[in-house]
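Intended use. Records such as the Amino acid transporter entry shown here are meant for training and evaluating sequence-to-structure methods. They are not intended to support clinical decisions.
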Amino acid sequence: MSVTTPDAPQEVPAASAAATLRPGSLGTADIAFFVVSAAAPLTVMAGVAPLAILLGGIGAPVGYLLAGLTLAVFAVGFTTMSRHVKSGGAFYAFITRGLGRPVGIGAALLALVGYNGMEIGVYGLLGTATQDTVHALLGTDIPWLPVSLAGLLLIGYGGYRSIDFGAKVLGVLLVAETGILVLLAAGVLLKGGAHGLSAASLAPGNVLVPGTAAVLAFAFAAFTGFESTVIYRREARDPERTVPRATYLAVGFLGLFYAFVVWTVVQAFGDEEVVRAAAEDPGGLFFSAITTYVGGWAADLMHVFIVTSVLASLLAFHNAINRYGLALAEEGVLPRALGRVHPRHRSPYVAGIAQTVLGVAVVLAFRAAGADPYGQLLLWVNTPGMIGLLLLQLLAAIAVPCYFRRVRHQEGALRTVLAPLAATALLATAIVLVVTHIDLFTGASSTVNTVLVLVAPAVFLLGLPLAAWLRHRRPDAYAGFAAEPSGSVEAAEPTPPAEPAETARPAELP
């Protein structure tokens, strides 16, 4: 009695509070699981890496290393700013604090559209990947729509449950999908590849080829969503440490792992033969390699794990979207109902339900139009989302030095100026590469590609009149946009003057 009685009253305020996400639920590994799972390593490798090899030749592994290094440079300023800005709005909060509220509100809309695009389009991939797996294993053809709808319900349930439940699920699925790739790599290394192991992929003559630009475009897309570590700071244990660690862990792992796996597949076929094999059957390249070096049973497992890889990516993005929706509802930009948190699971369940309903509507609309689930639902919805997230990264990189110019701090110039400026130049280059090679992502006409490219900047620009409307019609919501949560301490530095300087500055934002 004496043990249970004190606990009961504590649940009442938790259930009735406006925001009751469960603090201290996630450690470094948990947050990294969300980020790496969102990237879907197995799906990226088996589904996209063969195209990178086809276009860039045996130097393709270096493209993934270069993309990882670029995002690691971006992470320097990004994680430094995360110690100062505690808002749950992540990207849009950072951008608001550095570039002002109008730009931040445009970024908030862009984040919503970008993350939703990255998730909803993947339900088309879930349908086609499951079709391929069932056909490969059982020789049976199934319709894609019921699979996609079932996936929507399953992911909706996963987002409804507690965040630690999601972390456990993602941990298991991530081990499965990375494990099968490690098994492939081990088989190739143990057998010495097709003609012995070679470091020719690293030779400058094989890296500096015309196709490398296309490889870099694919490589940057393969990291999409890594920055979502900051979204989970309200549920992280010791967020000042776990969030930066999870960010660097995710970027470092993905960059090295992608490059290593692509290199081992090059070794599996040989430097001279791998491009020809990728041209003949890009979708079967990884399955052929694992069948040869491990066995047919491993190829069957890879088929199954591609489906679970897609599910893991969907759950990771779903959780990120829900928390963006929660943050914007708390800001007063979205309906307040979306800010409700489940009293037991401590999840933003209303935002999750709304996101699931939106997903169902989009999937059914594409089906009613007779669209292809892969070539149109996936690629046409995913592509604007990918461009939107790259634009958010660019804006965040620009925001870092602008923010630190206006506050007192003890951070070094490397973290607050040099690294963010370098990241700005590198990310701008990445966006140019993606846009100029957009046809490789979509396979669509120039008219469709133009529309897909313009979606992200158009959404961002819509935020500017919305900001003006909020400023005049809802000044309280505008003034409190991207403000620090009550009771938070903004500055992480031990220097006493840092706190009042930072808490005073947000009120001066335009």
